[in-house]
Design brief:
Blueprint lengths: L1 H11 L4 H13 L3 H14 L4 H12 L5 H14 L4 H13 L3 H14 L4 H12 L21 H5 L17
Helix pairs in contact: 1-2, 2-3, 2-4, 3-4, 4-5, 5-6, 6-7, 7-8
């Protein structure tokens, strides 16, 4: 039922981002990752500067360990568009560590810690940073860091798009 309503909303207005993001979320939660990716990519083709869609795409791609470089690219775009979102930097840091981009991983994990010093995720970010010592140049998958990646399905389900007044789509109420 929800899928039908989201699709109907997108037929009326293909740029209505809440419907697009929530439909992708619904697909991902139902293990329909190809459909979720298609919906996100279609949205980004229309509106490439939507950080939330870039972030959702990066998280989705990270679920397939063979697509970590693509995930890092999408998360990198999200980090540029959403510099104040600590969770974007955390996920990008772990993803970069997983593909061996250690210096960049340290940079984004440090940015995360600048924004969040006290949560349980901050402790995990510090542990990841410690394991990425200055002389480490090998690939470090997040699971080797002993961390539960932030980009799991439980987090994805909490990423439902919420518009604020600065980004409100004219004529639509969320």
């Amino acid at each position: 039922l929800a899928e039908r309503h989201y699709l109907a909303a997108l037929r009326i207005d293909p740029d209505f981002t809440p419907a697009r993001a929530n439909l992708a979320q619904l697909y991902a939660a139902s293990s329909r990752n190809r459909d979720a990716e298609r919906i996100l990519v279609e949205g980004l083709e229309r509106l490439p500067n939507l950080g939330e869609l870039q972030y959702s795409l990066g998280l989705l791609l990270a679920e397939d360990k063979t697509r970590m470089k693509e995930s890092a690219a999408a998360l990198g775009r999200a980090a540029k568009l959403l510099p104040g979102r600590a969770d974007v930097h955390y996920n990008l840091g772990l993803t970069l560590a997983g593909i061996g981009a250690v210096a960049q991983a340290r940079e984004h994990l440090a940015r995360y810690l600048e924004q969040d010093e006290t949560s349980p995720w901050a402790a995990r970010a510090r542990a990841a940073l410690a394991s990425l010592g200055d002389d480490v140049v090998r690939k470090l998958p997040a699971h080797e860091l002993g961390l539960e990646p932030f980009h799991d399905r439980r987090h994805l389900r909490r990423q439902l798009f919420v518009e604020d007044e600065a980004h409100a789509h004219p004529g639509h109420v969320v």
